[in-house]
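Box S2. Input/output pair 1.
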Amino acid sequence: MRKIKTFIKKNPAFTVFFILAVLLMGTAVFAPLLAPYDPYEAVLADAVQPPSSEHWFGTDRMGRDLFSRVIYGSRTSLAAALSLVGIIVAAGTFLGIIAGYFGGILDAVIMRISDMMISFPGMVLAIAVAGILGASIGNAVIAIAIVSWTKYARLARSLVLKIYHQDYIAAARVTGSKTFHILRKYMLPNALPTILITGATDIGSMMLEIAGLSFLGFGAQPPAAEWGYMLNEGRAYITAAPWLMIFPGLAIFITVVIFNLLGDSLRDVLDPRDE
């Protein structure tokens, strides 16, 4: 308990944003308990009602309660963003570490593929891939992952090359340590703090990209409760019923800010230069 209190006192910003992030994820997990209405139940008689005591965020064009849809939307949006970050961090880190450690033709092939992916505008390429795969939230995650892993590959490779010629790495090779052991015990732990900081910061930007694809019609499809798709539904009523865009937009804004600040404060916790 004393260690926890010391940690909180030493890292107040991280503690605050970590709690807020946990609350966001708790909202997603317990959405069925928090939402007052079925987010998919259409009541046409209540269509496009303004915010009131009965419907806190108003209703959409199908008469569905917008507050309930925003709450349920946290499930889809957060799950998609966290899954996407997990995929690109794992794939990019793996490819970057093996490219940096083994070098040679393997390094050349991975880095040339990375250069080729970077040469295209990321969002444009993601739209093209999503269009080929078909519109769905899963395909949107795959499309963005295909164009986003390169940053982590290049980052992990640079971190591996930074310690590749250190004496303790050479000593591990001389003493007969297997390659997997060296990668697991030395290379990965050295890269992990920077990778985790970058990944935490990227959650917000990945959520924006997923919401962008859904807004354009390449992500979540009706009747899904997803924040980007809800913005797409509300744009036709931006003057007559602005709440249809305001509340999903606020949900995206708040979530992105929390995860961006969480990643920034995580740097203060994990960055060894601060010791």
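Box S3. Input/output pair 2.
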Amino acid sequence: MRNNRNDAFVKIEKNAESLESYRDFPLIFIMKDIVIEHEYYSEMYVGILDCVEGHRIYLKDTFEIDEGNSRYLGNEFKKWDLTREDSTINEFPHIKLEFIDSIYASKLKLTLEQAWNAWSDPRDLLKTLNPKYQKIQETFSKLDKTFSENSEPIILNENAEQISLKEIHKIESVDSKPISLIAVTRHQYDISKFSNYENYIKNYRGASSRIYYGLWSDGGKTEYDVLYAIPTDDYEDVLNHLNAHDQINQKTAQSMALVIDSNGKYKIIRNSI
């Protein structure tokens, strides 16, 4: 496998709006190679995004990397509550947006340590995955490069092989009626955790329940999902399923379901809650 960061990380636009969507995610900051009076930055920072205010970036649990050496800075770049801290402080240490060359986020949801290890060697993302999950990761990473919110959802079967929406309908439908695909994941990118969701579906739906893996858009971000099918597009039934899995997703209900008809055409049912 090639040591290619492009397969593991996505480059983020250098503006506050783009960064805000990655709040509480670990990010990689590559700094510009320039010398400015009264300003000094290391070559690179790895930290959890705390918040962005104009050109000021605040981080939690930050590491700095300079000339191959790393040093833990802790919460040195964190935005503290001024009402609880020293009232004489009007600005906390931060990273200035204009001094950043590029910013990267992992395509998977990782811990800070995992993000840094993956940046150092992208193959680390797959070292703990079994061959099936490696195949899913490689397939999604490849297809994700050209995927947009207008792209047709891409679904893999339990063997990590791509399957058409029409084929799924044929397998799951009763009397050729529409079916609905329900995800049990929520903003999930860490494929190493897929086995937990698979076990959850088997316990929830029964051991014979078929599992699918989806690459699709929630209208904003692209998600990697673990899904199951129900043989109906009844709105109330679909909503019941969308709201049934909050216990595995930090009390967050699913936002939408994918309805498929006998011709493989699809539509989205969105959760009203």
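Caption for Box S3: The mean pLDDT is 83. Residues 5-127 form a domain with the SH3 type barrels. fold (CATH 2.30.30.100).
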